[in-house]
Amino acid sequence: MPVAAVLEIDRVSKRYGDVLACDHLTFGVRGGELFGFVGGNGAGKTTTMRIVLGVTAADAGEVRWNGVALDHSARRRFGYLPEERGLYPRMKVLDQLVYLAELHGFGVNEAHRNAETWIARLGLREHRDDEVQKLSLGNQQRVQLAAALVHEPDVLVLDEPFSGLDPIAVDVLAAILRERADTGVPVVFSSHQLDLVERLCDRIGIIRDGRMVACGTVDELRAGSGTTLIVHAPAAAAGWADDVEGVSVVESQDGRTRLRLADGADDQPVLAAALATGPVHEFSRHRPSLTELFCDVVGAQP
Ligand SMILES: Nc1ncnc2c1ncn2[C@@H]1O[C@H](COP(=O)(O)OP(=O)(O)OP(=O)(O)O)[C@@H](O)[C@H]1O
To answer: What one-character DSSP code corresponds to residue 161?
Structure first.
């Protein structure tokens, strides 16, 4: 696979009646990268992934793989976990995975080998001869994941792959996705589990109303969010920081105040104002979590 392998979503738009599900949406996922695609309910994640896989047609824009607009044969090399899980309910797990690998051009022996490999990796050995419809939801999800992986795809696009998995399966899948990325595959997945996304992903894109509103590493997202200060001054009366230039109070409780420092503003006047109230037990800069960054970006007025 070329080093410059990249999946590009370029100014993709899609309208459903009054709803603009994707609005000139643009981002790229490089080979070897784990990319977390996050956004509130109805933000446009599933629509974007469907467009990437050709399940839904875009009104405008283009999706490219290695610089070339995607066509059917390129998409055959993609692994896709759709939101609407699409397995054959009465087919047995092993048969289903072998069948899917064969559909993607694998010979029968290789298809069997791959199917058995993913059945083992995803903890499905005891279910390999069960009908999919008889499995628990979490185990059906594991089969669906195996179905996305069984043909050794060049690109992975996974719509909420972690949903419904128990904590052990979450760890197994996290390791699998990292491993796939380490072989040069671009991996993009959506999730509402932001702690997991923060822990796992190299870069993250936050989508709101069909538009990419923040994209980068967690540190890059933090850099764009301004500085948060935590001050613990037990004797401070309410409103102690109101007259300090360049800060706004986010919340204040029991002498502990969280403040937002404007870009370029000096934090020392804040410390001086806090000391003027009495003892200061804590004065620190807070590194916001992805969940906090997400709430800032998604909760902000357009
Ligand atoms: N087939 C459709 N017909 C009409 N509207 C649609 C269709 N598919 C999606 N939409 C609308 O497009 C918008 C984006 O939906 P989408 O499913 O892409 O969001 P999402 O980010 O995946 O949300 P969630 O996190 O809830 O799964 C929503 O307002 C949704 O109602």
So the answer is: T
Other CB atoms within a 10 A radius of the CB of residue 158 amount to 23
The CA 154 to ligand 1 mean position distance, Å, reads 27
For residue 1, tell me if it sits in a domain: no
Interface confidence: ipTM more than 0.95: yes
CA-to-CA distance for 69 and 242, rounded, in angstroms?
A: 54
Q: Atom 4 in ligand 1: which residue has the minimum CA distance?
A: 16
Are 92 and 117 contained in the same domain?
yes
Q: Which atom of ligand 1 is nearest to the CA of 47?
A: 18
Spatial distance between the Cα atoms of 78 and 84, rounded to a whole number of angstroms: 17
What's this model's pTM, rounded to 2 decimal places? Answer: 0.88
Distance CA 283, CA 215 (A): 30
Q: Indicate the top mutation candidate among 12, 45, 48, 194 to test ligand 1's pocket, ranked by most ligand atoms within 8 A of CB.
A: 45
**Helices assigned H by DSSP within the chain:** 45-53, 72-75, 93-103, 108-121, 137-149, 167-182, 194-200, 218-223, 268-275, 290-299
* CATH code at position 275: 3.30.70
Tens of pLDDT along 9-62? 999 999 999 999 999 999 999 999 999 999 999 999 999 999 999 999 999 999
The rounded distance, in Å, linking the Cα atoms of 111 and 236 is 69
Question: Exposed (0-12), middle (13-18) or buried (19+): which is 231, by Cβ within 10 Å?
Answer: buried
* 235 plus 217 within the same structural domain: no
Are residues 104 and 26 located together in one domain of the fold?
yes
Same domain, 126 and 258: no
pLDDT, tens digit, for every residue of 188-211?
Answer: 999 999 999 999 999 999 999 999
Instruction: Identify the domain containing residue 248 by its residue range.
Output: 223-299
What are the counts of helices (DSSP H) followed by strands (DSSP E) for the chain?
10, 14
Instruction: Give the residue among 134, 196, 132, 195 at the shortest CA–CA distance from 169.
Output: 196
259 domain-assigned: yes
- The count of structural domains within the chain is 2
